[in-house]
Amino acid sequence: MLLVKAGGRALLNVSEIARDLAAYSPFVLVHGGGDQVTSYSLKMGVTPRIVISPSGVKSRYTDARELEVYIMVMAGKLNKEIVSKLLDRGVKAAGISGLDGPTLIAERKRKIVVVEKGRRRVVPGGYTGRIVAVDTSLIRALLSGGFSVVLAPVARGTQGEALNVDGDQAAYQLALALKPEKLVILSDVDGVEVDGSPMRGMSWLEAAELAKAVGPGMNRKLLMASKAAEAGVEVVIASGLKESPVTRALGGEGTRVKP
Amino acid sequence: MKAFCPVCGGEVELPEDVMPGELLECQSCGATLEVYEQESAFKLREAEEIGEDWGE
Fold first, then answer.
1. Contact A159/A108 with Cβ under 8 angstroms?
2. How far is B21 from chain A (nearest CA, A)?
3. Could you tell me which CATH class the domain B2-46 is placed in?
4. Do A53 and B52 form a contact (C-beta atoms < 8 A)?
5. What span, in angstroms and rounded, lies between the C-alpha atoms of B56 and B52?
6. B42 and B16 in contact (C-beta within 8 Å)?
7. Domains in chain A and their CATH numbers?
8. Contact, A143 vs A28, CB < 8 A?
């Protein structure tokens, strides 16, 4: 079974990703979509508060109103658009969020560190969470029924609240629990680059080291890829914006992190 | 404006526009400290380690 994570920017190519993925069903696809949530927040009159982490990653601050939009877009519109594209390609597909089951259980982050006026500051964590447990029974039931699963990064909090969780983290946690043949992470870049040169392959130990040196965004992807590979799952980080992006990733394009 | 490091007792200079929650480093012992407000005064406590694993 193949596990794929497609980030919000890779989803600009969703029709092609769906066409390509049809050959690998049943599979599990975790999607992102932060940019799409921001766009709908603005349309709905909820001005997103953008905060910057100390390593330079820009994120939306998820307050109670933003969480409502997040769930509407992630577990609703975006998730169902992807499911529709897969159905168009003849894939038996079911869209769920991590809240269903529940599949993803997360602990709400009490505090986060942001950068304001160039200085680090601790602020309340809003409705974001760190995944602490995974229950694969719903996913396994769907897979055994021949359904491919499209999962939105919404988790059930330990206090019963819905939480915004990072899609890469969701994919990594699912990789540990499902032990897929491979985890393919599709983003808007051709893999990991060091000083402008693409890295073709590396061990999980090298990936953990390199995570300290690469830019924000990719550093977290590499760290999670390293942990998944340490647990025995090969990870490929590749562009989702090409023709046949999954087949290309499995065929050697992008960056491989090996167990 | 000054406050005291709860770890080593050293004096820590606060920025003029100090913000509650701001993280500062004690120049004496290197501890990372969080500014908090109590009875209209800014005080310092040792900061807990907070990861960057936010949501989407």
1. yes
2. 5
3. mainly beta
4. yes
5. 12
6. no
7. 2-183 (3.40.1160.10)
8. yes
Taking CB atoms and an 8 Å cut-off, how many pairs form between chains A and B? 72
Determine the Cα–Cα distance for residues A137 and A145; give it in Å rounded to an integer.
Answer: 12
Task: Decide if pLDDT at B53 tops 90.
Answer: no
Interface test with B, best of A120, A127, A151 (most B CBs within 10 A): A120
Q: Indicate whether A242 pLDDT > 80.
A: yes
Distance from C-alpha of B20 to C-alpha of B36, rounded to nearest angstrom:
5
Compare CB distances from B22 to A8, A121, A153 and report the shortest one's residue.
A121
> B20 to chain A nearest CA, in Å?
8
Q: Is the backbone peptide bond immediately before A180 cis, with ω within 30 degrees of 0? A: no
The tens digit of pLDDT for each residue in A47-66 reads 988 888 887 777 778 999 99
Q: Write b or e for each residue in A97-120: b if 16 or more Cβ atoms lie within 10 A of its Cβ, otherwise e.
A: bbbbbbbbbbbbbeebbbeeeeeb
Q: Mean per-residue pLDDT for A120-146?
A: 96
Supply the ipTM of this predicted assembly: 0.86
Contacts of A39 in chain B (CB under 8 A): none
> Rounded to two decimals, what is the model's pTM?
0.90
Order of strands across the sheet that contains A162-164: A129-134, A104-108, A154-157, A162-164
Cβ(A211)–Cβ(A219) below 8 Å: yes
First to last CA, chain B: 38
